[in-house]
């Protein structure tokens, strides 16, 4: 797998073709970043792709299969040699001892069956071995792509915040399970959050639209300890709501703004997995969370 950066996608494809020594039609690539000319030469972005050669992958797979076949052949030959030695020993012993009893004959037959190879069982484990290798390779490849993607998003966020008036000197990004975990901190962290979290909501909405549209990622944004404190505050607030639902079977929260309604939704869904929990809106746009049995396919226990 090669990572190539160039001014245009066409140049990146050509460079990948040279590095991997295959034609462009044989490339297996993923566009990590599309090129952008920027504004008056500023914020210009190059094209970035990650590419592999289809023929190389096929060749590696064939080499792997040949290695496995050779290993199995060696193992079979070793087993056959051991069996031959045992048979030779048995013949020597048979010539030196009296005729075995019926019980001894049965025991020898059992040993013989155990030593013989079962083609069905062997085939099962061979398939299992191949699947295991494929899953391991896919996991390692996915981890590499996630790490590269996290580093790229982190650098782009640093560049974006560098154009702002806020002093944010800590930018960390980790990508796991289709979610970008973003942590920001610095002297102006409180200013970046804004009064009642309005800047936090705007920044979270902007980053989500960017990463979900471009990479199909969800986000979890933490600025200083804002998100953690909001989660603790909502957990404390919904305690009487939970008690009311446990008593009456239904309930709702008061009107919540921005990220608070999303946090309340997550915590209440975790608390009541068998109930209908959803966000509702009034005509003037205010939002709250309801909990009841309506539209719930799971019938309550009597």
Description:
It is a single chain. The chain has 302 residues and is an alpha+beta fold. Among the domains are: 55 residues; 80 residues, K homology (KH) domain (GMP Synthetase, Chain A, domain 3), CATH 3.30.300; 64 residues, Ribosomal Protein S8, Chain: A, domain 1 (2-Layer Sandwich). 57% of the residues lie in helices and 18% in strands. The protein contains nine helices and nine strands. The chain has a three-stranded antiparallel β-sheet with strand order 1-3-2. α7 crosses α9. About 4% of the residues have low confidence.
Tally of individual helices: 9
Q: What would you call the shape?
A: flat
The amount of helix comes to 55-70%
Total DSSP E strands: 9
How are the strands ordered across the major sheet?
Answer: 1-3-2
Class by alpha and beta content: alpha+beta
Radius of gyration: 32 Å
What do we call the CATH topology of the domain at 145-224? GMP Synthetase, Chain A, domain 3
CATH class of the domain at 145-224: Alpha Beta
Unreliable stretches (pLDDT < 50, length at least 5) are 120-131
- For the termini, the CA-CA separation is 58 Å
Calculate the mean pLDDT score and round it: 75
What can be said about the biggest beta sheet? Answer: 3 strands, antiparallel
CATH architecture of the domain at 145-224: 2-Layer Sandwich
Order of helices and strands: EHEEHHHEEHHEHHEHEE
% residues in beta strands: 15-25%
CATH homology superfamily name of the domain at 145-224 = K homology (KH) domain
């Amino acid at each position: 797998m090669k990572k190539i950066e160039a001014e245009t996608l066409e140049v990146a494809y050509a460079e990948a073709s040279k590095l991997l020594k295959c034609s462009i039609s044989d490339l297996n690539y993923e566009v990590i970043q599309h090129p952008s000319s920027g504004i008056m030469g500023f914020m210009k972005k190059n094209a970035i792709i990650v590419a592999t050669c289809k023929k190389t992958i096929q060749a590696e797979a064939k080499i792997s299969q040949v290695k496995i076949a050779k290993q199995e052949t060696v193992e079979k030959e070793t087993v056959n040699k051991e069996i031959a030695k045992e048979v030779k020993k048995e013949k020597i012993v048979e010539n030196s001892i009296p005729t075995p009893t019926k019980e001894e004959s049965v025991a020898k037959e059992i040993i013989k069956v155990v030593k013989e190879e079962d083609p069905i069982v062997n085939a099962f484990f061979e398939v299992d071995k191949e699947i295991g290798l494929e899953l391991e390779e896919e996991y390692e490849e996915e981890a590499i792509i996630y790490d590269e993607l996290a580093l790229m998003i982190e650098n782009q966020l640093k560049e974006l915040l560098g154009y702002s008036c806020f002093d944010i000197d800590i930018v960390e990004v980790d990508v796991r399970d289709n979610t970008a975990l973003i942590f920001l901190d610095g002297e102006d962290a409180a200013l970046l959050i804004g009064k009642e979290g309005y800047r936090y909501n705007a920044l979270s909405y902007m980053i989500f639209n960017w990463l979900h549209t471009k990479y199909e990622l969800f986000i979890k944004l933490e600025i200083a300890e804002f998100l953690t404190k909001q989660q603790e505050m909502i957990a404390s607030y919904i305690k009487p709501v939970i008690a009311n639902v446990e008593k009456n079977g239904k309930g709702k929260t008061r009107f919540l703004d921005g990220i608070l309604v999303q946090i309340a939704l997550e915590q209440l869904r975790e608390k009541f997995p068998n109930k209908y929990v959803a966000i509702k809106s009034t005509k003037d746009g205010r939002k709250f969370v309801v909990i009841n049995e309506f539209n719930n396919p799971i019938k309550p226990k009597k």
